[in-house]
Structure formats: structure tokens, C-alpha cells
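Hi V.,

You were right to ask for the full record rather than a summary. Here it is.
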Amino acid sequence: MFDVPVDESLISLSIRELQVPFGLLKYGLRKRYPAQHHFTPSKKLKQHYDVVIIGAGGHGSSIAYYLAKYHGITDVALIDKGYLGGGNTARNTAVIRSNYLTPESVSFYRDSVRLYQGLSNEFDYNIMMENRGQLTLAHSDAAIRNFRWRAEVNKHLGVRSELVDRKTIGEIVPSLSVTEDARFPILAGLWHEDGATARHDAVVWGYARGACQRGVELHQLTEAQGIDIDQGRVVGVHTNRGRIRCAAVVQAVAGASSTVGRMAGLQLPIHSFPLQAMVTQPYKPVLTPHVSSPHVHVYVHQTSRGEFVIGGGSDPYPLYGTRATLEQREKLSGAVLELFPFLAQARVLRQWAGTTDMTPDYSPVMGLSPIKNYYLDAGWGTWGFKATPICGKTMAELVATGRVPDLIKPFELERFYRFEQINEAGSTAASH
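Predicted structure:
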């Protein structure tokens, strides 16, 4: 007989490998679900809540979270006609930035970007935040003047933006075509170092999970079908699952803002337009920043999975719909090839659309409404995702205290009646 040496590390490795399937088997055969629910298990609606939030997207979930965490208001029903984060939250391209033009918008989105930086730690849940920077391209002297203006406003308010020349652009994005033979040669750019991206579904899941852990009830497949008003005050919401009495209602329904507003008798200055985007097959990492060109109506960035996300401006006509069109795919393809010719051989994997709620001045409608205790979170157009944290924090403060925070005071509905509109020329791509 020979003594054969035994590698004890291999034995321990085999034991660990066996533990995994046996653990899964034991987990699956348990009578009671052993893991903690992320969200509220299905249950009946109560007859009364302190607050009903219509819309369980990023904004609705964040409002519920901040109400519960910072104001102790947990008797909240977060309702949605579909599923959690299934509206525009699931259909956006997840760009985070604060390099707008007006001081009101820059201050607002600056604080939102700062909140985003700490969300993963606050949730104990990875939202896959990546600081990549954003480069907006100028193809004309007028655009350069506008970018210089924006850069100065940004710097004054603590946002990192600077005007860069074509040589610097080539260093920041080597794969970008900066040739002078292009149809619209690149002359300069606005470099926004604070630009970032995050996983959109992780953001809404993190907010909703935190809210549900603190007592908020999430009710999916619960459609608001009417709003009860008594002597100028909201008193209840009719749903497909019955009537709910409540002390306050927050409307956060993105593209359906006008429709839900009409249920409460409100005529909002909003029109809804489809906004389309598409992604290519994955490539090895070649593009770090987010790159956009308002002139050729396109923006693009590469995801951590290697796909190129390509989007542009809204469709030119109002429509409540999320269909994708061949016409827009052709426009986006032609525009992106002017910037990145190597994508000519890329295959498009999928195309989709969201429904954006546009205001005349390209700024949101936040705060009080003519109906007492009926609060508006609407008019987000193409910039709702990046506002998710600060919107939730400020709207929760308003609902809890009855006082409009200074940060959102400029965005109140009354500005349209006072002719004090906020013309935000820094909105995405071809929205103007």
C-alpha cells in the first residue's frame, strides 16, 4: 500500500460546494418564506391613510421614504396602476447632472446630485452610481456663448463646469470624431465633471424598500380613478380596488400628470410627448463620459455592460404612448454616427419610449395646488430621474410641515399666472 497525500484544501472546497445546493434545497422546502420582504406584501387597502401618493416611481417612492424617515409619517399608501418603477423610471436613460442654465435649476439639481452620492450607503443597497462626467458639444458660435454663460452660472453656484476647446475634447473622449470635415464640426464643449449615472431600478427599489421597512404600504396594480374634493379640500381617492379616505394626496405620475390632474379639476400647463431611446450590442469599454449634442439632437453613453445608450429629443407631437418608431431610430442612428462613426457596424438590441410631461418653460411644477392638501410633483419632461432624491426630500418637507421649501418655491404652479416662468434652456438635447 502506498501513502497518497491528501490535499485538505480540496476536501474543504468540495464540502463548501455541496453546501450551496443543499442550502438552496433547504431554503426552497421551508414552509415559511425565510427571507425578509423587500416591499409590502399584498394586502387589502385600509379605509383611511394620512397620505396617499399616486405614482410608485422614483419620485413617489422617494417622497414616501423621506416622509417616513425624517418626518415620522408612516400611515402612507403608495399606489400605482402598474408596478413599482414601471413607468418613466424604467424607461429613462439614467443620466445625472446639474449643469443647467438658470440659477433656480442649477441649485436644485446640485443638491440632488449631492444626495445621489450617498444613497448607496444610506440604503445599504447598491444603486450602481458611477461618476463619469458629461460633455455637451458646441457646433456654433451661439452655442459657445451659451456654454460660457452656463459655465459661469454653474461655478458661481458650486457646480463643476467649464468651457473646453476641441483639443481638450479629443483628450477627454478619444473615440469622438472631431474632424473639421464633419457636417457640423465640433468647435468647443461644456465639460461637467459632476455628471454621473446610476441604475434606475435600483434607485426606486432602494427608496421603496426603505419606505416599506418604516411602515409605508406599497399597493401595485392600484389605479387612481377619481379624486374626492369637499369644500376645496382633498378628502379621498377612488381606485379600482375601492375608495380611500385621506388627509393629503401627492400626485407624482409623470406623463399622466394632465390626466390625473383633471380628476381633481385641475387644468395643468402640461403636454405629454413620447421620448425615445435605444441601445446597441455590447462593446468593450471605449466611452467613459456622457456625450450630448443639442445641435444634432442626440446623446450617448456606454453602460457598465458595454451597451451604447442613445437618445435625443422628444417626438414633435403630443401623444400618450410608449411605442417606438422606425423614423426616430433612423434619426438617432444618423446623428450618433456623426459623432462616433465606428458605431456604423453596431446592431441595435432594443428601442423604447417614455411619456414625458412638458411645461412651456421646461421646468417642473412642484408644491401646492389650488386644492388644499393636494400636492403637485409634475412637469418633469426629460429631467425627472436626476431630480429623484431632492424632489422626494423637499416634497416630503412640504407635506409634513405645510411650508414650501425655498429650493422649490420658484417651481410653483402660480408662476404661470404671474408670468414668472423659468426658461430652462439647459434641458436635454432637442427638447427646445
